[in-house]
Amino acid sequence: xxxxxxxxxxxxxxxxxxxxxxxxxxxxxFVQDEPGVNRGYDYSRSNNPTRAALENLVxxxxxxxxxxxxxxxxxxxxAVVKLLKSGDEIIAxxxxxxxxxxxxxxxxxxxxxxxxxVDTTQEENIEAAITPKTKLIWLETxxxxxxxxxxxxxxxxxxxxxxxxxxxxxxxxxxxxxxPLLLGAHLVVHSATKYLxxxxxxxxxxxxxxxxxxxxKIKFIQNASGAVLAPFDSWLTIRGIETxxxxxxxxxxxxxxxxxxxxxxxxxxxVFYPGLASHPNHVIAKKQxxxxxxxxxxxxxxxxxDAAAAFVSSTQLFKLAESLGxxxxxxxxxxxxxxxxxxxxxxxxxxxxxxxIRLSVGIEDAEDLIEDLEQALAKHAETVTTQKLxx
Length: 391
What we know:
The chain has 13 helices and 12 strands. It is α/β, with parallel strands linked by helices. The strands form 2 sheets. A 7-stranded mixed β-sheet has the order 1-7-6-5-4-2-3, sandwiched between helices. It has a 5-stranded mixed β-sheet with strand order 8-9-12-11-10. Strand 2, helix 4 (98-108) and strand 3 (114-118) form a beta-alpha-beta unit. The radius of gyration is 22 Å and the shape is globular.
């Protein structure tokens, strides 16, 4: 059965009424037949039928045994870190999501969990960073926002060799393009806010475990910590996933056209997109993914922070906003927005320049999106010319 067909038919009809849409069980508690005897549900923090339908769906899509849905992507990341104890160490991708960096450095560092940040595109860097205290490898591929690609299967082999957990943040690719568990990862996390939800109308996170034992630990943390996804948001996420494959296809088509167009534009200095043959890890991306995603990043020839800030404020169809993965195109300036919690020197060291611009390419007509970027670049050119004349 093809992936898209499996997706749609993994969503159950309601066994009580036959409803083709999963019901929203908007309840906090459930009547018990006897004390301690229930019909599979007792309290919605512990379990809820709507959330369970979402969790089973995403576990199926990722090829995992167990999934747990959380109130945000960061809550999902937090649950994975709670598998560790004081004194443990993490090896993490250097070009890391700003929220994950903030959680690692400003929350878990005070509990004695240390993180080593390395360029995971070179597996030898991971090997070199492993110590007796290392317990977890934290991977994002593609990374946010420079879209670096790491070889999941090769890193999974390293993790197994050293008896480490490998967790892959699969938010940018989604299971429609990439399934890290099938490549050897032990855990996958998602900000379901992004491509899984797909409509910029919810906040959600999901952890998927490859085996039942690890999944049971995540489910325990979910219940014990309580940052669960509400029934209505679970239903919204299911509804978003129903069109995931259609949306992802259009996201990828539009992003590929825009990346190719930007690469040829005289006012653009560098384009970051795994689908371009010029991307240093294009071959690996092609090997482990069925598409290259809907995020494109680039820098301008006039390489200043102010120039980038002016550009992102001059687009019309690309709305200036946080987040990504929705049907409407968004533009952001990572240095001042998504990655401002990372020190400037660290951002620059991993390639996140102050002038970097990130596009979340939506499903509009690609020609309209290119016209919008063209007019913004034209304004940028006028500004540069004026500055030179004044100088």
